Every structure is written in structure tokens, then in C-alpha cells.
Structure prediction request, 224 residues.
Amino acid sequence: MQSFRNAAKSGFDEGQFGENKRTGFKHLIELNSNTTKQEKVIIFSAPSGAGKTSIVRALLTKISSLAFSISACSREPRPNETHGKDYFFIPAQEFKNKISSGDFLEWEEVYTNHFYGTLNSELSRIWSESKVVIFDVDVKGGINIKEKLGEDALSVFVMPPSIEELENRLRSRKTESEDKIQQRISKANEELQDAKYFDFVLENDNLERAVEEAESIILNFIER
Prediction:
């Protein structure tokens, strides 16, 4: 995997958090002293609509040693989403407070005042059960978790067949406005350029085939 350095991440000043408004400004918070990083983790990242969540869900039914790391976010839940199952839904101000308290392994302000992140407590919970953590995170989050955990992490970028197909998938959800769809497509074009920073690039033009390939990659990583 090629090295990726976010020059901004070392400049985080908790006292000046309110002045940091840049979209996509990423920071890595040190793991709490009671959290070990000697365990393995699997990272799946992709542009929105590429199908990474479907792949991760399928893998969880196939590989019993995996346990899903539930991400935190500051947005409102969508229909059929459940707090503590799909995401930890945390109001933006509370999310900022947790950032300042060092509660996150990583976090990102994806859009203005819309935060996503990984709680240290999730890794502690899963590792205490002797499980392998599997992440379903955005592209910058995946890059930064890999950079943080190094060889203990396997990172997989899920590639959509095309931007056109990605747009079709986003529209088929019927959960977002036209402006939000265009925003996601624009972001996807940028994220596709970051595929080279992942250990594996997995094209999802056929879900069953993509799951089979991902399963093989993961089992080889776990057993090595």
C-alpha cells in the first residue's frame, strides 16, 4: 500500500476546534491507553453507492470471526435505521465534544457540520470478544485507519463499475434530494483517485462474485 499522509492531521488544536470548518478535514486521535492495536482489522471503503455495505453484511454471515464496527455519525437516521445497530446517531455538538475528549480513533467532517467517525470503545468491545473488527467507512476514514494500524489492518476499496452505475444506485435508494445526489457523485469522482492507497481494489459489478473474492482475501489475511 502506498503511503498517504494528511498534512493537516497533526495540526489539530482542540482549543480552536470551532475555527476548523474545512470539509473533509481529517484527524487521527490517539487510541486510549487501555486499547490494544495488536488485533487485526478489516477495512471496507468506497464512494457512496458502490455497494460496500452489502458486501460487508454478506461477509458477516460467512465468516464467524468477524464483528462489525458500528460507526458514529451526526446526521438524522434514515427510515429503517436503528441507533446502535446501523450507526450511533450523535448530535453534532455532542460529536464535537467527543472529538475534544479523544473518544474517536478517527473522524471526519464529511460535509459542513456533518460528522462521521469510529469510537475507540467499539474496537475495545470487539477485541474483548476475541473477534476481528470489520469496518464499513468512507474513503478518507479507511485510509487513515490503515495508516494508524498498519500491518494489523487490511484495507479494501470497493470500486463501482462506472460513475453512471453509481448514480443509478444512488437514485434507486430514493432517500436523497437531487442536490445531495450530485454532491455524492462529485465526491465519488474525487474518492476514486484514492483507490491506489488501499491494499486491494475490489470491483463490484456482480455482488456474489465480489463477496466471494472478498471472503478469500480476508481469510488469507486472518490466517497468515
User: Anything to note?
Assistant: Strands lie at 26-28, 41-45, 66-68, 72-73, 88-89, 104-111, 114-119, 132-137, 153-159, 200-203.
